[in-house]
Design a protein that fits this description.
SH3 type barrels; 5-stranded antiparallel sheet; Metallo-beta-lactamase, Chain A; 6-stranded mixed sheet; 2 domains; alpha+beta
Length: 211
């Protein structure tokens, strides 16, 4: 994990002495390269969840082909699933039906900012339609599972209808709004779903909300 951006990069291998892929490249590469050496594996691709700088910063240093599609590499089976919202190019990768790399769409207790309708669709209709036992390896900070986020993620609980929408009044960018959901976020600043008087729903960083 990058100490400032808190962005994650991963290396995934099929077995010791086998084939590996990197997932994103925005974090320090030294521990990933050390794992490659210890496992004696051969990295063949970089899987890119999306093109934001904090996830692609070291692609050139790795010098490997970048993939955003489904593929097989050695014993690894990778399914690429479009999850737009935070960015138009956002892709989640399901690896060997064991783990899903969610980029900046779904985090522990939070979701990505961006197009509200697209984020909701990508989280509820795409990611949470996958088997809930899957590990979730997000683009920032802590690992979780789909089962945990289904039960505990504040956004998901309201989208499911098991928690009511909030009614607290707030201001965002000087504009009056209603705070529908407030959740922890990976950077410690919180994440909010707010609704403006004209009916617009927006997901914003907590630092933008005056409560």
């Amino acid at each position: 994990m990058h100490p400032d951006w808190l962005s994650n990069a991963y290396v995934v291998a099929d077995e010791e002495g086998g084939t590996a892929v990197f997932v994103d490249s925005g974090a320090p590469l030294k521990p990933l390269r050390r794992a490659v050496e210890e496992w004696r594996v051969e990295p063949v691709f970089i899987l890119r969840t999306h093109g934001h700088h904090d996830h692609v910063a070291h692609e050139g240093e790795l010098g490997l082909p970048v993939r955003t599609d489904s593929l097989e590499a050695g014993g690894l089976r990778v399914e690429a699933i479009a999850t737009p919202g935070h960015s138009d190019d956002m892709v989640a990768f399901v690896v060997d039906d064991e783990a899903v790399f969610t980029g900046d769409t779904l985090f522990r207790d939070s979701v990505g900012g961006g197009s509200f309708d697209q984020i909701r669709h990508s989280v509820m209709d795409v990611l949470l339609a996958l088997p809930h036992e899957l590990r979730v390896l997000p683009g920032h900070t802590d690992e979780t599972t789909l089962a945990r986020e289904w039960e505990e993620n504040p956004f998901v609980r309201v989208w499911r209808g098991v928690e009511p929408e909030g009614t607290e009044r707030c201001r965002v960018g000087g504009e009056e709004a209603t705070l529908i959901v407030w959740s922890p976020d990976y950077d410690g600043g919180g994440k909010a779903w707010v609704r403006f008087a004209d009916g617009r729903d927006v997901i914003v960083g907590g630092s933008r909300v005056e409560r």
